[in-house]
Automatic annotation (TrEMBL):
GO terms for cellular component: cytoplasm; Holliday junction helicase complex; Holliday junction resolvase complex. It comes from Roseovarius atlanticus. Residues 173-219 form the Holliday junction DNA helicase RuvA C-terminal domain. GO terms for molecular function: ATP binding; four-way junction DNA binding; four-way junction helicase activity. Signal peptide: none annotated. Residues 160-172 are annotated as: Flexible linker. Its main location: cytoplasm. This is Holliday junction branch migration complex subunit RuvA. Has three domains with a flexible linker between the domains II and III and assumes an 'L' shape. Domain III is highly mobile and contacts RuvB. Residues 1-64 are annotated as: Domain I.
């Protein structure tokens, strides 16, 4: 599995870039949002990648962060969501927007992506809602950074990222949970109160568990 590549952008197309890595060109498909964030042709870039393998197809998809890559992997697990639909959702909402829509049950936001109907959008929200806190925890953690571009072109093979809960010191977990909730649009006061209450009930909880518990506390009653 090719998990990350770094090299020079040879050319840019409407839905992909060609990255030259020591004389070998890799076609890497990206969302509109990711393509817009990439440098111009001739510049160097590093992307996390996911390799789609089918009987008649080998296709690389590129992402600027592990959070974006993880959402792509999870979106692809939903019935009716292929690589093109996943990139459409990520291109419309961005990884943070996808997490926000799924965590808050915002079907309309997911439906706004090109080619995504109401039933498919509802499946995305229902099937991935329980997994959102783990991915949000990845985004909130300071250890999850965009890849740096090395001086020399390189291809690095790595296993696909998995959003597994990681134990963190209580203070760090609370800070990361608070960051994730404020990114969802909650006010600092209400988010801090929910995180503090959740941490009081689960003092050794990891970030994802605190996020999940705080979301339940913040959910509308009745």
């Amino acid at each position: 599995m090719i998990g990350r590549i770094a090299g020079r952008i040879d050319y840019r197309a409407a839905d992909h870039v060609l990255i030259d890595v020591k004389g070998v060109g890799y076609l890497v498909y990206c969302s509109d949002r990711t393509l817009a964030a990439l440098p111009a042709a001739g510049e160097h870039v590093a992307l996390y990648t996911d390799l789609l393998v089918r009987e008649d197809l080998l296709q690389l998809y590129g992402f600027t962060s592990l959070v974006e890559k993880e959402w792509h992997r999870l979106l692809m697990s939903v019935q009716g969501i292929g690589a093109k639909a996943s990139l459409a959702i990520l291109g419309t909402l961005g990884p943070e927007g996808v997490g926000r829509a799924i965590a808050l049950g915002d079907v309309n936001a997911v439906k706004a992506a090109k080619g995504i109907g109401p039933k498919t959008a509802q499946r995305v929200v229902i099937e991935l809602k329980d997994k959102a806190p783990e991915v949000m925890a990845m985004g909130a953690s300071a250890s999850v950074l965009a890849p740096e571009v090395p001086a020399d072109d390189e291809v690095i093979e790595a296993p696909a990222a998995k959003a597994a809960p990681v134990k963190a010191p209580s203070g760090a977990a609370q800070a990361e949970a608070l960051s994730a909730l404020t990114n969802l649009g909650y006010g600092p006061g209400e988010a801090a109160g929910a995180v503090a209450q959740a941490a009081g009930e689960m003092p050794e909880a990891a970030t994802a568990d605190l996020i999940r518990a705080a979301l339940k506390l913040l959910a509308p009653k009745g």
